[in-house]
Every structure is written in C-alpha cells, then in structure tokens.
Amino acid sequence: MVGFTMFQHVNARLQQIMKTKEPFGGISVIVLGDFNQLRPVGDKYIFQFNNSYNALVDNPLWSLFELFELTEIMRQKDDKAFAIALSNLAKGMMTLEDINLLKSRIVSNENLEIMEDAIRVFRSNAEVDAYNTKVLASLNTEGAIANAYDFCIGDGLAKIREKVLNNVKNLKTTETYGLPLQIDLKVGAKYMMTVNLDIEDGLVNGACGQLIMIDYGKLQKTNETVPCRL
C-alpha cells in the first residue's frame, strides 16, 4: 500500500523523468485502493498530512484526484452473509451473528487434516513450501519436475552471461516476481497462479486450478524429455 511519503516520491521521480514540474510529470494517474486497509508501515495514509506544514498548505497531490467509490461486492457476491460480516469487520461494527459465523469456521489443530480442500495461510514462504511438499509427496499419481530455463538477451561476454545465469539460480522467489526455479508437478494436485499471464483468459494472480494431465516433449539441445504442456 502506498503511503503519503511514497506518493510524494513517485511524483518527484516522474517529474524528473519527464523533465517537467507538472504533477506526476504530466502523466495520467489512476490509483486504486481500499480505505479499510491498515495504514502503510512507517508512513501516513495517502490522504493524510505528513506534518503540520502540509496541513497548512494542503496535500496538492491527493486533492488533484476525483474519487469514484465502488460499492458492489464482487468476490463474495454469492455469499451475502459472509460479505456483510467482512464489511462489518472492516468497520469495527460486527454483530453477534457476524461473530458466530466466523467462529463456526474455527478448526482445532487436531482436525486440520480434515480440511483437505481449504486454502491455508502461513506466516512464511518456508512454511508454505514445507506444506506443499508434504501434500505433493502424499499423492500417488503421475508427477514430474518442471525446471525454469533462463537465458540472457544481448551481446554480453559469454563469461558474464554465464555468471548472471548462475546467480539467477540462487535467487529467492521473492526476488524473481514469484517465479520458482522448479515446480513439482503432480496430476490431481491443485495449483495457484502467482503472476498474471493472460488477464482476458483468466490466467491471473490468485487463479486456482487442478492439474489433469502432463504432456511431454524433448529439448532440442539435450534431447531431454521434459513437461512442456499442462
């Protein structure tokens, strides 16, 4: 979430790039957000004043925008009771019915394995990887390892290109836009996309699906058999 200070930095950087003092370098800007989100870490809300001086002169950036509030709930539109409970939770106005609804979803640690189809939320990527590895190992279905094949574009020296490619292999997924070096494939397993590939086709971040079949092909250089289509 972008805060007051970051918003100012974005404006200053665009002015520098576009070589003009116009707000945001004269570029049209559309900002989206949820006013019920927590405040940005170490910063003010984008519409708040950073200090007493800003309060005197107003926030010129935020005042340039026209607000359009979206009121129709889309993600939970098929579960009205749950949607209302979440809305009341964000406003700090939960009713007894809302509280009972959320409490009804509490599962003890002893019964976690019963919730096989539930999406789990963990505190760290390491915990996510450990759980996914455990689930995939329990599936007695066809499987394969899909390796990422990286390459360099340009006319750099061969040694430099090789060094870059070797360094990429050691990067964490947080440094590769969520793209892992390897993916453990198992027929019947559920997978979630973490990047946008084709918005019109619904292949977006957060989209879930089940692996039905693995189609294989051979690499031209090594003649290695690898999964090429899912």
Structure overview:
The protein is α+β, with helices and mostly antiparallel strands. It folds into 3 domains: 4-64, no CATH class; 80-106, no CATH class; 139-227, no CATH class. Helices cover 28% and strands 11% of the residues. The chain has helices at 4-18, 52-57, 80-91, 96-103, 125-137, 158-168; strands spanning 143-147, 182-186, 190-192, 208-210, 215-218, 225-229. The strands form 3 sheets. A two-stranded antiparallel ribbon has the order 1-2. Helix 3 (80-91) packs across helix 4. The protein is flat and about 60 Å long. The relative contact order is 0.07.
Quick synopsis:
Residues 4-81 form the DNA helicase Pif1-like DEAD-box helicase domain. This protein is an alpha+beta fold.
Number of domains: 3
Shape: flat
Encode the helix/strand succession as letters.
Answer: HHHHHEHEEEEE
Uncertain segments are none
Strand order of the largest sheet: 1-2
Q: Portion of residues in helices?
A: 25-40%
SS-based class: alpha+beta
Tell me the number of helical segments per DSSP (H or I, 4 or more residues long).
6
Q: Cα-atom Rg, whole angstroms?
A: 24 Å
Task: Tell me which oligomeric state these chains represent.
Answer: single chain
End-to-end separation in angstroms reads: 34 Å
Mean pLDDT over the full residue set: 84
Biggest pleated-sheet summary: 2 strands, antiparallel
How much of the sequence lies in strands comes to: 5-15%
Structure summary, number of beta strands = 6
